[in-house]
Amino acid sequence: MKTRVIIHGGFFSESSTSMETKIAKQNALREIAGKAYTYLQDHSAAETVVYAVALLENDILFNAGTGSQIQSDGKIRMSASLHDGNTLKFSGVINVEHVQNPIYIAEHLMQVDDRVLGGEGAIRYARENGFENYNPEIPQRRNEYEAKLAASRTSTVGCVALDAEGRLSAATSTGGKGFEIPGRISDSATTAGNFCNADCGVSCTGVGEDIVSVALATKIVTRVSDGLTLEKAFEKSFAELKQIDGFAGAIAIDKNGNFFHQDSHPSMVFASFDGEEFEIFN
Questions:
Q1: 20 to 30 Å CA-CA from 279: which of 27, 81, 158, 182?
Q2: CB 154 within 8 A of CB 13
Q3: How far, in Å, CA of 52 to CA of 31, rounded?
Q4: Is 156 a known active-site residue?
Q5: How far apart are CA 282 and CA 12, in angstroms?
Q6: In 85-132, at which residue ranges do the beta strands (DSSP E only) sit?
């Protein structure tokens, strides 16, 4: 089985008019996709998507982990999830604060029965399991918050990988949309925004409420499992998204190693690598 990896860095938002930032994001995605592919050669798909998303969380160009958006009460709350297409287990954290890599906590939760935690419970679990206190705020986000310039349609990051044994996994992480009501739950730590089985893996980005409304990732994967091609599954699912004028995008890999991506607005950034050819989409 030929290994493959695809990642996304969400939509351009407050930086969309900056060609310098656009190029920087494209270069960062290319580098991270390459690192993730190399990592995939000696690791499972599940391990690789966590690795890739952690790299994205650590890059301040993206709205996940360090550099996350600030909510209306001045705090940063992040969400992330992991779906292993081999075991079919799903884990995630919702509105977790003061951690560096939410995706690592989601990965750790795979070991326990209660695999999706939110708010104070997620923070407590992180501290009890050795995840140190960390401030993910960067000056740019504080300036945006104070000037009320943060856009409502911002970025999320994600990765889907197919390993040498034919196993698929998907991971997604977000720092939110900025200025949301505290307690809002996005799609990133739900199966609407991050879904995977033995046939297909999907990671979404965009407006969480729109993605949840049409269960975007779940529908794409289910339709592939039911026999549609990736392209047809995306076509049908995005047609339903269009009915509500939804703002979203998704990346996917199927069990045969086919890549696909689509967005409802042409401002999303993706990168894929199959060991021979990089593709950068924007």
A1: 81
A2: yes
A3: 10
A4: yes
A5: 9
A6: 90-96, 116-118
Asked if 5 contacts 160 with a C-beta cutoff of 8 angstroms, the reply is: yes
**φ, ψ dihedrals at 44, nearest 5°:** -75, 165
3-state secondary structure 124-136: HHHHHCCCCCCCC
In contact, 154 and 63? CB cutoff 8 Å? yes
pLDDT tens string 168-207: 999 999 998 888 888 899 999 999 999 999 999 999 999 9
Residue 22 burial class via C-beta count within 10 angstroms: exposed 0-12, middle 13-18, buried 19 and up: middle
Q: What are phi and psi of 217, to 5 degrees?
A: -65, -45
Catalytic position from the list 156, 174, 205, 218: 156
**Which one has a higher pLDDT value, 140 or 135?**
135
Domains in the chain (CATH in brackets) are 4-90+136-281 (3.60.20.30)
CA distance 193 to 181: 20
> What are the tens digits of pLDDT across the range 107-128?
999 999 999 999 999 999 999 9
Say which DSSP state 102 is in: H
DSSP one-letter code for 183? T
